[in-house]
Amino acid sequence: MATVETRIGGFGTDRDRGLLSASWIVLIAVLIGVLLAQWANVSMDMRTQAGIYLFGMVVLNLPYGGYEHMANLRSRGLPFGTRYIGLYLLLVAGFIALFFAAPVVGLALAIAVAVTKGGHGGLRVLDALVSTDHLRTKPQRGLAAFVRGGTVMIVPMYFWPGDFAAFSTFMVDIFRPGAFAAVAPYFTEFRVALGGVFAAAVGVHAGLGFVRREALSTWLVDVGETALLILYFALVPVVIAVGLYFPLWYSMRQSARVEAIRDELPSPDPESTPSLHAVVIAFVLGAIATFGLAALVATLAPNPLSTNDPLVSGVAFFSVFISIIALPHVVVGSWLDTDRGIWYVP
C-alpha cells in the first residue's frame, strides 16, 4: 500500500486549539442538557426540535457554507472561479433532477453526502490542528473518514429509527408521496446491517490506529472525539443532534482550521484578488441565489409541505435542500479542487 503524508499538528495557535476545545465543550453541554431533561422527565415535542434544527442549520450553518466557498475562491482568478461555479450549478441541477426522478435514491445520496462531509471535513481538522500520524495509508484515512462521518447518520439511524424513518418519509414525500413505502419493509434489516458494519469499522479504525500510532496523545484525541460523537448522536434526538452538530461542531472546527493555516497560504496576487467590497457583494448575491434556488425547488416540488406542521415540513425540506447544495460543496469544493479546496491543509 502507498503511504500518505501525515501531519504532526504543525499549525495553529492556542486560540485555534481553543476553538477545538470549545467544540467538545458545547457538544458535551448539549448532551448533558438532554440527559438531565430526560432524567427530569422533561420532553421536547417535535415542533420544538424542528425549531432548534432550523435555527442551527439555516440561520447559523448555511451562511458558513457560503463563506467556505468564498474563502476558497478569493484570489483564485476569474477563469477558475467561472469553471468552479459552472460545475457547482451543474451538480446542483443534476441532484435536483435525481430527487424528482428517483427520490429514494436521492435520499440515499443525501445521507452519503452528510457522511462524507462530516468525515472528510473532520479529518482535515485533525490534519491541521492535532495530528494524523496514526493514519498511515489512504485506505486507513478513508476508513477514518467513514467512521467519523458515520456518526452523523448511521448512529442516529440505529438508535433513533422511528424519527429517522419518519423524516426519511417526509423528505421523499416532497417529490413523490408514498414512495418510501417501497423500501420501508427493509429499513430494520438495513439499519441493523449498517450498524454492524459501522461498529466493525470503529473497532478496526481504533485498533489499527493504536498499532500504527507515533504519539499516544493524538490517537487518544481521535478516538475520544469519535466516542463523543457516537454518544452524542446515540443519546440526543436526531433532529436536534443533526441541527446543532453542523454549526457547533463542524463549522466551529473548520473556522479553527482556516485560522490555523492562514499564514501558510500562498501570498495572493494583488491584481487578481478581489476587494473586500467585491467579496461582500458576491457573498450577498450568493445568499440571494441560494434562497432563490430553495424557492424554485419549493415551487417545482409537488408536495413541498410534506406534513401538516410547517416546522416539521421545514426540517424535511431544508434537509433535502441542504443536501442538494452539499453534494457540489464536497465534490467541486474539495475533491475536484486538488490544488486547494474548502478543507485545504498545506
Automatic annotation (TrEMBL):
**Function in brief:** Catalyzes the cleavage of beta-carotene at its central double bond (15,15') to yield two molecules of all-trans-retinal.
Pfam families given in the database record: BCD
The molecular function terms in GO held by this entry are: beta-carotene 15,15'-dioxygenase activity; carotenoid dioxygenase activity; iron ion binding
Q: Where are the transmembrane segments?
A: 20-38, 50-67, 87-115, 192-211, 223-246, 276-299, 311-336
Is Membrane a UniProt keyword of this protein?
yes
- Which biological processes are named by the entry's GO terms? carotene catabolic process
Record's protein name: Probable beta-carotene 15,15'-dioxygenase
Could you tell me which species this protein originates from? Natronomonas aquatica
EC class (word): oxidoreductase
Mind naming one GO cellular-component term on file for this protein? plasma membrane
The cofactor required is:
Fe(2+)
Listed A to Z, the keywords are: Cell membrane, Dioxygenase, Iron, Membrane, Metal-binding, Oxidoreductase, Transmembrane, Transmembrane helix
Which compartment or compartments is the protein found in?
Answer: Cell membrane
Similarity section: Belongs to the Brp/Blh beta-carotene diooxygenase family.
Name the reaction it catalyses.
Answer: all-trans-beta-carotene + O2 = 2 all-trans-retinal
Q: What is its main location?
A: membrane
In the UniProt record, does the keyword Metal-binding occur? yes
Write down the membrane topology: Multi-pass membrane protein
